[in-house]
């Protein structure tokens, strides 16, 4: 029997809970014993994901967690670790009036069919973005293992609707830029466009609407040779993880689809030697060839759709009567989730890279 809510090869994570249930949780299995767990880092990462202003939902969860197993006196024991986050600010009544009518562009209808009508409709159940708080926990632990080994993940908001930020220089990414982006709540490279992006989000909110965008990520100082082709290649593994984040609709590596608009000689990454290391003069393939890391920065872009919960009247079907209905979605929702998901993507990438690295490393390497 396949564990459908579990993921990972060397470190296995299992998620449980729902948006409006009593609690959410994650079980982490495979970490070495003796790792010091930095709870301040975990709390700071959880805070990044939480809504903080008029640009986000008014549902505020403190994300206070309990550690039920696997950690003793601040260190991992080697046994499975269980974190529990209680839901304390649910307004489930907001979903009762429309319980029989699936919300457009949500998982409500396919989940209703798949689970024979027994799915939890409150806030989307397990399909809610609320579940991403658990990714922040495993990402925080992975981050504290990888950062001392000089491996860093950084992301910025590449675009919100039609407002564009600068892009990374694929071949030469400054370490200080990556570290700076990790500290920002609303990470952009060009700070001059931040106000315009926020103004666009607020305008959509005031119009009972929403906007989407693109997140660009970089993983730096990853050694060459990481990835397990064919089906655990860097692209296939990370893509599978990224698509577990609600509202992700696309992913590309390096130039992605734009590579098709060039001649081969324009995009082939020629080799050179720099400081006695083999590198490439460009990085159009995004640090991956044949599903294996090249030693150049990994470049990833992720498309996030406009938040599907909007205040405008939309069309739906009453699943009990099969009649067309006008649907008004109630509740507290984000006019954009790009600015929150960017931190989730960092966490997911930290975990994915750590898990891939452990194919060639002993458990003690994590210490």
Structure explained in plain terms:
The protein has helices at residues 39-49, 108-114, 132-146, 175-183, 194-206, 234-242, 264-267, 338-357, and strands at 6-7, 12-17, 23-29, 65-69, 71-72, 75-76, 81-86, 152-160, 163-164, 213-220, 248-253, 271-274, 277-280, 288-289, 292-293, 298-304, 314-318, 323-327. It is of the alpha+beta class and 367 residues long. The protein has one domain (6-366): Chorismate synthase, AroC fold (4-Layer Sandwich). A five-stranded antiparallel β-sheet has the order 1-2-3-7-4, with helices on one face.
Could you say which structural class the secondary elements and strand pairing correspond to?
alpha+beta
How many domains comprise the coordinates?
1
- Tell me the β content: 15-25%
Q: What is the name of the CATH class? A: Alpha Beta
Any chance you could write out the topology, listing elements then pairs?
Elements: E1 6-7, E2 12-17, E3 23-29, H1 39-49, E4 65-69, E5 71-72, E6 75-76, E7 81-86, H2 108-114, H3 132-146, E8 152-160, E9 163-164, H4 175-183, H5 194-206, E10 213-220, H6 234-242, E11 248-253, H7 264-267, E12 271-274, E13 277-280, E14 288-289, E15 292-293, E16 298-304, E17 314-318, E18 323-327, H8 338-357
Antiparallel strand pairs: 1-2, 2-3, 3-7, 4-7, 5-6, 8-9, 8-10, 10-16, 11-16, 12-13, 14-15, 17-18
Helix pairs in contact: 1-3, 3-8, 6-8
């Amino acid at each position: 029997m396949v564990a459908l809510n579990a993921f990972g090869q060397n470190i296995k994570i299992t998620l449980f809970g729902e948006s409006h249930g009593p609690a959410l949780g994650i079980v982490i299995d495979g970490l070495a014993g003796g790792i010091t767990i930095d709870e301040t880092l975990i709390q700071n990462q959880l805070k990044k994901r939480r809504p903080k202003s008029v640009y986000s939902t008014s549902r505020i969860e403190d994300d206070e967690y309990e550690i039920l197993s696997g950690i003793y006196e601040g260190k991992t024991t080697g046994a499975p670790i269980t974190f529990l986050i209680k839901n304390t600010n649910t307004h489930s009544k907001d979903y009762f009036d429309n319980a029989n009518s699936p919300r457009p562009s949500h998982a409500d209808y396919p989940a209703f069919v798949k689970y024979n009508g027994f799915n939890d409709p409150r806030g989307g159940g397990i399909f809610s973005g609320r579940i991403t708080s658990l990714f922040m926990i495993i990402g925080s632990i992975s981050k504290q293992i990888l950062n001392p080994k000089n491996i860093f993940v950084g992301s910025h908001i590449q675009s919100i609707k039609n407002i564009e930020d600068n892009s990374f220089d694929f071949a030469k990414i400054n370490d200080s830029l990556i570290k700076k982006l990790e500290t920002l709540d609303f990470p952009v490279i060009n700070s001059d466009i931040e106000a315009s992006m926020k103004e666009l989000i607020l305008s959509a909110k005031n119009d009972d609407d929403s906007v989407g965008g693109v997140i660009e990520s970089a993983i730096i100082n990853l050694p060459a040779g990481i990835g397990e082709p064919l089906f655990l290649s860097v692209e296939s593994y990370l893509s599978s993880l990224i698509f577990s984040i609600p509202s992700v609709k696309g992913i590309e590596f390096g130039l992605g689809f734009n590579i098709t608009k060039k001649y081969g000689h324009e995009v082939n990454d020629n080799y050179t030697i720099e400081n006695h290391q083999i590198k490439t003069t460009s990085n159009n393939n995004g640090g991956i060839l044949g599903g294996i890391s090249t030693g150049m920065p990994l470049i990833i872009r992720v498309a996030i759709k406009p938040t599907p919960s909007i205040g405008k009247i939309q069309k739906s079907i009453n699943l009990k009567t099969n009649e067309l209905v006008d649907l008004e979605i109630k509740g507290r929702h984000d006019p954009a989730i790009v600015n929150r998901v960017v931190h989730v993507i960092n966490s997911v990438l930290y975990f994915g890279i750590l898990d891939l690295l452990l194919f060639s490393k002993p458990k003690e390497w994590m210490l």
